[in-house]
TrEMBL record:
Transmembrane segments: none
Organism: Nonomuraea montanisoli
Alphabetized UniProt keyword annotations: Hydrolase
The keyword Mitochondrion belongs to this UniProt entry's keyword annotation: no
Keyword Plastid assigned: no
Protein name per Swiss-Prot or TrEMBL: Alpha/beta hydrolase
GO CC annotations, alphabetized: membrane
């Protein structure tokens, strides 16, 4: 395991690194997740081995630190991730990012263009949540005030998300989890979709069978390669590891 100080408090982000050839592949997890449990199998797949791979945990999640004075916005996560990549000597990385992590990766590519050479988004958030939408994860967490979530809301969310997601969500800092979910609900400015469409790098978007992102024609017209992965739900890399590896390898080629 490696680490880097990424915040004035001395807080460190940590990652698991697999040796291989550059440019590196950087794996970024979603809300309430951690990269190793979600990506280790994929990174070790024969179609994806041989590349230097970094499985990074964002601040507040997994094995990374949980600074109380960090804002946990999508942009702040992107800047902290940029500090990790610079510390690791990474340039022009292929960033594979799931769900909320995809929103962070888009912000990373827009704010730190030299660090990202390719984006592969995995059923990622491209738009702010519609008003009134309350789902078990992100929008459900953001529906509480921060103090209410920390004191009681997390228990209700635990029951809604189920044991699989809670296995990693329980490791997250509760204030960090809420602040991240709130920023995700709000989105970036410009919004992630607009940033993605404007990026001058190769971009791919993996989605579960029958669940294409909104306005797929606009994304395709902007050069985003849309890849449908069968036999999978939102956690494509866990639901269909073979299909995920094949899709990612094709986009890396």
């Amino acid at each position: 395991m490696r680490d880097a100080i990424v915040h004035a408090s001395g807080a460190r982000m940590r990652w698991v690194e697999l040796p291989g050839a550059d440019p590196a592949v950087v794996y970024v997890h979603g809300l309430g997740a951690a990269s190793a449990p979600y990506y280790a199998g994929a990174a070790a797949h024969p179609l994806l081995t041989g590349r230097r791979s970094l499985l990074v945990d964002l601040l507040g999640f997994g094995v990374s630190d949980r600074p109380a004075d960090f804002s946990y916005t999508l942009e702040a996560h992107a800047d902290a991730l940029a500090a990790v990549l610079r510390e690791a000597g990474v340039e022009g990385a292929s960033v594979v990012a799931h769900s909320m992590g995809g929103a962070v990766a888009i912000a990373l590519a827009a704010r730190h263009p030299g660090l990202v050479g390719r984006l592969i988004l995995v059923d990622a958030n491209l738009d702010p949540y519609p008003p009134g939408l309350v789902l078990p994860g992100g929008s459900g967490i953001a529906s509480y005030t921060e103090d209410d979530f920390v004191s009681r809301g997390w228990k209700e969310v635990r029951e809604r998300v189920g044991p699989h997601w809670w296995a990693t969500m329980r490791l997250a800092d509760r204030r960090g989890l809420h602040r991240t979910a709130t920023s995700l609900a709000k989105g970036t400015d410009p919004v992630m979709r607009e940033l993605l469409m404007s990026l001058p790098i190769p971009r791919g978007y993996l989605y579960p069978e029958g669940a294409a992102p909104a306005a797929p024609g606009d994304l395709a017209a902007a050069g985003v390669r849309l890849v449908e992965v069968p036999d999978a739900g939102h956690n494509i890399m866990l639901d269909n590891p073979e299909g995920f590896a094949r899709a990612v390898a094709a986009l890396l080629a």
